Amino acid sequence: MSTPIRIGIVGYGNLGRGVEAAIERSEDMDLVGVFTRRDPADVLTRAASAHRMEALADYANDVDVLILCGGSKNDLPVQAPELAARFTIVDSFDTHARIPEHFAAVDAASRAAGTTALISAGWDPGMFSLNRVFGESLLPDGDTYTFWGRGLSQGHSDAIRRVDGVAGGVQYTVPSADAVASVRSGERPTLTTRQKHTRECFVVLADGADADAVREAIVSMPDYFADYDTTVTFISAEELARDHAAMPHGGFVIRSGVTGDGATQTIEYGLTLGSNPEFTASVLVAYARAVHRMNAAGQIGAHTVFDVAPGLLSPKSPEQLRAELL
Amino acid sequence: MSTPIRIGIVGYGNLGRGVEAAIERSEDMDLVGVFTRRDPADVLTRAASAHRMEALADYANDVDVLILCGGSKNDLPVQAPELAARFTIVDSFDTHARIPEHFAAVDAASRAAGTTALISAGWDPGMFSLNRVFGESLLPDGDTYTFWGRGLSQGHSDAIRRVDGVAGGVQYTVPSADAVASVRSGERPTLTTRQKHTRECFVVLADGADADAVREAIVSMPDYFADYDTTVTFISAEELARDHAAMPHGGFVIRSGVTGDGATQTIEYGLTLGSNPEFTASVLVAYARAVHRMNAAGQIGAHTVFDVAPGLLSPKSPEQLRAELL
After folding, report:
1. Average pLDDT, chain A
2. What was the ipTM of the complex prediction?
3. pTM higher than 0.80 for the full model?
4. Which one, A12, A106, B270, B297, has least CB within 10 Å?
């Protein structure tokens, strides 16, 4: 085994905690520490030492890859270019519409500094994106369908909790079984938003709130629920805590197409995740291994999962991969 | 659109025919012709011109990538190193145990000549291999399961046809539903060969053959059937021609593992193929696009799917991929 890859974690929420756990399972990596904007004394890690963000200046020679675990809205647009100017980084930037602009900012910083950056790793964007590219590259005459769930959506859960009369709640995105069956059969249906997914809400009412009014406010909410068939189930605070604390998610990318004189071909990639943040974290850690190798090979600048040879994700050598897994 | 990629096909069986059809659906590629050891006058292509193998010497400047469509047993071990010394090539070498030796021979020829070679493309080896690497890289604490089928196995069909008293027949490999369900559930079972797949044979008896003796000879055949639960169904020559002429195949690669303090995570990649050779051909064509770009970028020598950045498979630019598919 060669020298371990030295990893730093920036930000310590669910994702950062997942990265710490994933590094514990990676024999070729050492965790240098967690870097946080909070008071390190208040950050309860699994085992790692916690440091103030400013302390990163002292670690320039002790960290091979920084894994950025902040949010896409406020943290990563600032942190990723700033840190790419000093470190090789991986992030999970997931605001699809702003990816080109984020890529450009990180690429400029990274090229100037001779570091390597991998943006938008995770499962969507990430593994699902890869399978969209594989799908349309292998079956140019075809259609790609992405279904999400059954899974807890953080954004939709937050939207529920902002409704008057709601004391707590979660939302699950559920792919429609009929739609999935139709796609798998090779029918290549045209599906509306409403036909693809349903939304299931579990809501704790505030004292004295009117259930019907709350239900109506949720199901008619534009952008979030109005375009979907949404169910609202009222539960107690105890049930919410007991039955809805996990963060499962997943989904499918299905490419359905034809070859030759009309043979139907279907490719399906599916994830069933007991913990969404821990799986995302596992992807970030595997890509940290890849960017470390890419940087050593002189491949500087920003990259995405599309630019990374899959063998670089594995701790095994190319010879071993060919002999054991090809 | 830049200059089309000029492709030559070497060998024209089911796979070569599938490659020809796949190139028809690839707008960035032109098919230069089919090169064959048969008399070109006897080769009925879909549309391409057919030439004697020896004519390849005249095409050194007119072909960007040769796609080798011969067999792994006798053709590719000879042709791939020989042609890699003159052309950038893609092959579908699928004798798993001999891949390291094939890689070394092709790599030496290709490096000496400054060409690029991609060996063992297809779906297994190929897309399934990629998913085995992704699976264990993302979930190091886990198990990988590969199931094949339901699909027609050429090797097992040939074995049936060699049995005394058999006038014709086909064999389907079928994944066991119980085994697949157990793996999908995250149980990480230990499965014997017999538990993973069953084998279904459809056999036409020769005149006067003893059905019981034929059945017994098949189900007890070492290596091919003895380790499996095998069913033999006798059918007429008409039924064989009518119901068993297609070449469907497929299967799954499932990685099941845990993260953090025990969350179960499952990744599943599945193929349902109406035509096995046409899908393999589609993979070869997409990788021909990739090796052409790799050669232009100076990446010479032998490679496998593990070494190819997925974005290189797509006719779209990196900017387009990031904006549309990430």
Report:
1. 96
2. 0.96
3. yes
4. B297
